[in-house]
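Two proteins were folded this term; both appear here.
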Amino acid sequence: MTEPAKARRPRSRSKRASTPDAVTPPTGEAPASDLTSPAPEVEASTTPIEAPAAVPTGVRARRRIVVTGGAGFVGSAVCRVLHERGDQVVALVRDPGRAGRLRDLASEGVELIESDLSDLNRLAADLDAADAVIHAAGSYRVGITKVERGAMWDANVGATTAVLDAAEVAHVPRIVHVSTCGVFGDTRGEVVDESFRRDLRDGFASWYDETKYGAHEVAEQRIRAGAPVVIVLPSQVYGPGDQSAVGRQLRQAAAGRLGYTVLDAVGLGFVHVDDLAAGIVATLDRGRAGEAYVLSGPTARLRQAIEVAAAVGGHAPPRLRIPTGVLRALVPIGGLIGRHGLREIVDSGAGVTYWASSAKAHHELGFSPRGLEEGFRDTFATP
């Protein structure tokens, strides 16, 4: 596997966002009104926004857009937005036969291509004649075993390297790399902006954390080399079809079936998958090459989000909370109880915050995500 170039030592000092979303440090608790409202309006910038230099003036109206990870939770939503507005969409997937989220779009003309993101020549051919590529493929899981680490490195760092190499070979004029707010690490109750850099001396909470940071570094290295890359940094994504651990807890809370909470002090930004997809496409259209954009909705502790989900479903939130200390005590015997990656899970969620402001995306891209209550009603509504 290919290791990324050695990461530079980032500065550790936080730069506070000029317009925090929903959290007022130092308490780190989001006011309830902010959780049920859309992200706050930000005064529009009076500075004209220049068209992104990376987009050629001669691009045809119906563009050919390649989306890696097109069958995934985020990638499929992006494909839908692009298709509905008339773009020619090519979704790169591992197995077209298992691309259930794209079944209806495939019948309407979205092209599914089985692609190996480790095969540079094949990738370059897949990207041939593309007006842009959105790299949304990746592996997301916290708490993996050591034997699974190689595959995750390949899926996150290796695939990002290969896609950017192939895009260069194919002369793709526009690239959107989907990163994560997690690259900031623990923001310690601060709502930060895109200029924030984590202190690498703190280490990484999980192998996922480390591989996504590595992929982000690869994208930034290409930007410094002049590649037409723009980066988006989503927060915790939710919505219909969300199969993440956080998504399962929220769904159970909305259904009144969540008996207890664990690690519910973790601070997250929450963005509906449809809002994220719209933000990614807006970045494709109007984002400035070489820049990064946080795409996050309201910020909250997980327990607050669980309370909103329970209220949306007409239920009381669970009263029982498993103390973090109990989980830490189980870490040494995690393997014996079938939890080989328990240390990663605890380190990733024990009161840390992953809070970042999307004010820049609001100013430049018109990004305006919905509030938690509205988003949860859409996600957990009973037909």
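Next, the second protein.
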Amino acid sequence: MNMPVNKSPMINTCGGISSPYHEELWKLNFQHLSGERGHKSRPTFSITKEFILRFNQTQNSKEKEELLELARKIILRCKRKLGLKTLGSGRHVHLPAAWTEVIYLAQCKGEIQDESLNMLYASLDHASFDYDHLPALFFVAESVLYRLCCDASLKTYLYSVEIK
């Protein structure tokens, strides 16, 4: 004997309110609960196009020093995300985001560029690769090739240090 399956209707726990309002209420509650955990929203990357332009084009020595200090703080944060001291392991390590941020940081001229490229080289040297890393690795490869093409068009030859 087959018993018919009775589907019970979904019960609206908020009483007699409309469905769109009910969904909005759930979103507000979720945002409220998320806010209680102490998570603050911050941009995915702290390097922006405006920061790179300001860093490379500023002539004011005081502003240059402030931007250099900020770039050094970002480098320290990237070193932690890359896991350079822990050989790429740990809860704080997020290689794809760190590689992308380091590539952006490498667009800043001078010692910041050198430090960024050295960090990227060290990280790629000891990282264990995963399927999730592929989009970031393609971005890194594309950025490095673009940089080499730009440098090659400006100079008649490149030193081995520049190709590194």
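The radius of gyration is 24 Å. Residues 36-43 have pLDDT under 50 and may be disordered. These notes refer to the second protein only.
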